[in-house]
Automatic annotation (TrEMBL):
Protein name from the UniProt record: NADH-quinone oxidoreductase subunit I
Names of required cofactors: [4Fe-4S] cluster
Gene name, Swiss-Prot/TrEMBL: nuoI
Note on cofactor: Binds 2 [4Fe-4S] clusters per subunit.
Main function: NDH-1 shuttles electrons from NADH, via FMN and iron-sulfur (Fe-S) centers, to quinones in the respiratory chain. The immediate electron acceptor for the enzyme in this species is believed to be ubiquinone. Couples the redox reaction to proton translocation (for every two electrons transferred, four hydrogen ions are translocated across the cytoplasmic membrane), and thus conserves the redox energy in a proton gradient.
Residues binding [4Fe-4S] cluster 2, per UniProt: 86, 121, 124, 127
Organism: Gleimia hominis
UniProt entry keywords in alphabetical sequence: 4Fe-4S, Cell membrane, Iron, Iron-sulfur, Membrane, Metal-binding, NAD, Oxidoreductase, Quinone, Translocase, Transmembrane, Transmembrane helix, Ubiquinone
Length: 231
C-alpha cells in the first residue's frame, strides 16, 4: 500500500449534523409531531373497499387485455415482441398460421397461445409499449389475488377483450378488398355482409350473427350516402 493510501486509510471520517441553534433545540422534541398536528384539521378520507370500488387513474396499469378490431378479428399477430420486452419473463406467446377457413387476425399469423404469469408480472407496461398493433393494453382491473400460483397464469381466453355489440366472433375472413394495412390504419369500421354470410354458412348457431347483421344493416345507408357524395 502506498503512503498516500495509507494516510487516507488512517484518517477517521466523522459525520456530524449542523448545529440547530437555540430555537431548533427548543422545538426539536415536538418537531416530529408537526405533520400529525396539521392532519388533525384535515377532512378524513376513507375508501370503503371492498364495499365501494376504488377509483383508479385512467392510465392505471392493471390486468392485460388483448384487443379486437371493429369486425371482431384479433389484433394480436403473434410477433412475441411483448414477451421479449418483458423484464420479468412473465409473458409466453406462441404464434399460429392463419388459414382460409380459420382467420383469427389480419395477415399471416395470430397469437395461438398467450399467457401472462401474474406471479411474475411487475406491471411496468413495457409490453404494451412494444406491441406494434396496439393489441395489448392494460386495464384498471387490479383484483388478481388468488390461492394458487397456477391460477395466477392467465390464458388467452381470460385476456381476450369481450366482443362488443356489432362484432363478429372469429374466425372469419378479412373484410373484402382489404389488407392487413387497412386494419392497422383503422379503416375497417365493422363487419361486412360477406363476413356475416361466411359465418352463417360455417357456424349458423353463432350468437354474434344477429348483432353483426344489425350493424351491417345500420351502416349501409351511411355508406351509400358517402358514395353518392363522392360522385
Amino acid at each position: 500500500m502506498s503512503e498516500k493510501n495509507q494516510k487516507h486509510g488512517d484518517d477517521e471520517m466523522r459525520y456530524e449534523q449542523d448545529p440547530k441553534g437555540f430555537f431548533g433545540s427548543l422545538f426539536a422534541p415536538v418537531a416530529g409531531y408537526g405533520v400529525t398536528f396539521t392532519s388533525f384539521f384535515r377532512p378524513t378520507v376513507t375508501e370503503q373497499y371492498p364495499f365501494e370500488g376504488p377509483f383508479t387513474m385512467p392510465r392505471f396499469h392493471g390486468r392485460h387485455q388483448l384487443n379486437r378490431y371493429a369486425d371482431g378479428l384479433e389484433k394480436c399477430i403473434g410477433c412475441e415482441l411483448c414477451a421479449w420486452a418483458c423484464p420479468a419473463d412473465a409473458i409466453l406467446v406462441e404464434a399460429g398460421d392463419n388459414k382460409p377457413g380459420a382467420q383469427y387476425s389480419p395477415g399471416e399469423r395470430y397469437g395461438r397461445v398467450y399467457q401472462v404469469n401474474y406471479s411474475r408480472c411487475i406491471f411496468c407496461g413495457l409490453c404494451i409499449e412494444a406491441c406494434p398493433t396496439r393489441a395489448l393494453t392494460m386495464t384498471n382491473d387490479f383484483e388478481l389475488a388468488d390461492y394458487t400460483r397456477r391460477d395466477l397464469i392467465f390464458e388467452k381466453q381470460q385476456l381476450l377483450a369481450p366482443l362488443e355489440e356489432g362484432m363478429l366472433s372469429a374466425p372469419h375472413p378479412m373484410a373484402e378488398g382489404t389488407t392487413d394495412d387497412n386494419y392497422y390504419r383503422g379503416e375497417v369500421t365493422g363487419p361486412q355482409q360477406s363476413q356475416v354470410d361466411w359465418v352463417k354458412k360455417h357456424r349458423p348457431q353463432d350468437a354474434t350473427i344477429e348483432s353483426a347483421q344489425s350493424a351491417v344493416t345500420d351502416r349501409q345507408p351511411a355508406t351509400s350516402s358517402a358514395q353518392e357524395a363522392k360522385k
